[in-house]
Design brief:
six-stranded mixed beta sheet; FAD/NAD(P)-binding domain; 2 domains; 24 strands; four-stranded parallel beta sheet
Length: 432
């Protein structure tokens, strides 16, 4: 069992795959209506880049394994590449796909439901459509936002920020709100933030600043894009982004580096920093992220993790107390980029681990690969690139970049074309 207290039931956090609460022991009235299987069953909760990729790769490893993807949505919208949607370079339709198409292509079962409870002793999850037994369980529920990292703790203020100035890294609805803001924006300050800690795609806030600034230039908007960052320089491709800021958007982007945010008033539209107060007219405010609330609620989080990430074996991704439960994607604690490319790359390894263990074997750890294209110009379409690999130092017990990691900071149209091709190739692999 998860050992969750009754008091803990009230702490359901954010937009994860959980939609309702239940008692700590599963007392489902019925078994979920799924095809019977004589083989091992792997249940995957969460249909983001991590969950979808794992489902696909497990079937590639061993087509006899019964794979069930539990996902509450009917359509997938790719948040990776969505800056291109905000910048007018891709359509919503190009980033939207059906989960049922992915399941049909790879030969697994897509179960449209929400997970509500976990019983590790019985190896069962509860959903709003019945319980499901598993031999291996993968939780990939994504992230929640932590607005307290920006000094915002009042629930009404948090709700107002989410509604009016959404970060845009959890749902398509947030993306549409940002897109609408820009369509109606006439003048003033459009504020962006680069959150502290490890967050979804290290390059995203800086790429977004470039694409919104490009929109300002194209529409001749008398305004400024202000990007607030606690770091001294961009988290990745610092040289490439800073060069783009200066050469392409010198009069449009103001990069406020080494600046901490102490509070935000969404009603008066004022951000209080450790240096000055900033009045803004629109924005996409991206706070620190944390693992989806279900990880903590089910007793899987590491109390030492400031972002409430799962306590897992970093080489095999299973919860330290249970080799049948794996946590991947945004909820894992290793300091790798939390990008789509890393989620997809990690998925190959996790699929091998699960497949091997179901056969009584173990799989050797392989470094994930981060391939991050960032569009910094729209006329012409030019991008920069970061390619990273990782290693673990046994002496220091610390993670570090592998020496073969390399940034490509010179913007080029070739990288621009590869940005779109990366998306097309991965969408084709997952959805056909």
């Amino acid at each position: 069992m998860t050992g969750l207290s009754r008091r803990g039931f009230s702490a359901l956090l954010g937009a994860s795959a959980i939609t309702s609460l239940s008692l700590p022991s599963i007392s489902a009235s019925h078994k979920a209506e799924l095809p019977d299987s004589r083989n091992a069953r792997v249940v995957i909760v969460g249909g983001g880049w991590s969950g979808l990729s794992i489902a696909n790769y497990i079937k590639n490893e061993n087509e006899k394994i019964d794979v069930v993807l539990v996902e509450r949505r009917t359509s997938f919208f790719s948040l990776p590449l969505s800056n291109l949607f905000i910048g007018g370079l891709m359509t919503q339709a190009q980033l939207t796909h059906r989960f049922e198409n992915a399941a049909k292509l790879s030969g697994y079962v897509y179960f449209n439901a929400s997970m509500t409870e976990l019983d590790r002793s019985k190896r069962r999850i509860e959903t709003n459509k019945g319980w499901i037994g598993y031999d291996s369980l993968v939780l990939a529920p994504g992230v929640d936002y932590d607005y307290s990292s920006f000094g915002v703790k009042d629930p009404k203020a948090v709700a107002e920020l989410k509604s009016n100035f959404p970060a845009g890294f959890v749902s398509v609805e947030e993306q549409l709100k940002i897109k609408k803001q820009l369509a109606n924006f006439e003048k003033g300050v459009f504020v962006l933030t680069a959150p502290p800690g490890i967050y979804r795609c290290a390059a995203s806030p800086y790429e977004r600043a470039c694409l919104i600034a490009a929109t300002f230039k194209q529409r001749k908007i008398k305004g400024k894009v202000v990007l607030i960052d606690s770091r001294e320089e961009p988290a990745v491709n610092g040289e490439g982004f800073l060069t783009a800021f200066e050469e392409l958007y010198g009069d449009t982007i103001e990069y406020m580096n080494s600046t901490g945010i102490e509070g935000i008033d969404p009603h008066t539209k004022v951000i209080k920093t450790d240096f000055d107060d900033i009045k803004f007219d629109g924005g996409a405010i991206y706070p620190r992220t944390r693992a989806a609330g279900m990880i903590e609620r089910f007793g899987l989080s590491d109390p030492a993790s400031p972002q409430k990430e799962a306590k897992i074996d970093p080489f095999n991704y299973n919860f330290v107390e249970d080799k049948h439960v794996y946590v991947t994607g945004d909820c894992r604690p290793m300091p790798f980029s939390k990008s789509a490319s890393v989620a997809n790359s990690e998925a190959k390894h996790v699929a091998k681990v699960i497949s091997a263990r179901l056969q009584g074997r173990e799989a050797k750890w392989v470094t994930p690969e981060s391939v991050c294209y960032s569009m910094v110009n729209t006329q012409p379409q030019e991008a920069i690139l970061s390619r990273s690999f990782y290693r673990f130092d046994e002496k220091s017990k610390q993670w570090a970049f592998d020496p073969k990691s390399k940034p490509y900071n010179t913007r080029s149209e070739t990288f621009g074309k590869e940005t779109f091709n990366w998306g097309k190739d991965h969408f084709r692999e997952l959805f056909g």
